[in-house]
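Worked example

This section walks through a single chain of length 166. The input is the sequence exactly as stored; nothing has been trimmed or padded.
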Amino acid sequence: FVPLPFFLSNLENEMAKLRTEFGNIGNVDGTSVLNGMRLLCAEDNPLNAEILEELLHMQGATCTIYSDGKQLVEAFDHVRPSDYDVILMDVQMPVMNGYEATRALRASDNPVGRTIPIIAMTANAFAEDQQNAMACGMDAFLARPLNLMLILKTLDAVIEKTAQTA
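Given that input, the structure is written out below as tokens.
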């Protein structure tokens, strides 16, 4: 839990606590499943986007963040198979929500849209929300507030599942 208002020092303190409790998850030395990954993200809240970007960068990942689903879907037309490893999709966004964006990606002319793992991010963590995420074509579900250990565990499971089906 990173307290608000958000300060980078608070995030660094939380990362130090996690390293102590769980080992060197915050080191960019290859131990993190995120190290070297390229993520495409949809997040409409600027503070959440900043926190997400910092968490990912601290783990050695890079990300491109769009502020709504429509922007991400439009940019996706030009995505090649090697451009991104996974999509983190906010569910509740203006213009086009995460469910609509996922359906559009899965049905797009770009074949990458049919296979790239898509992970939902939402504060609504009821069973119905998880079912809706899976029904529209998402591969996994992260409840907010985002927890680094859960992100790592979820990505590891999605990557393993993707490797088995490839």
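What to look for: The chain has a mean pLDDT of 86.
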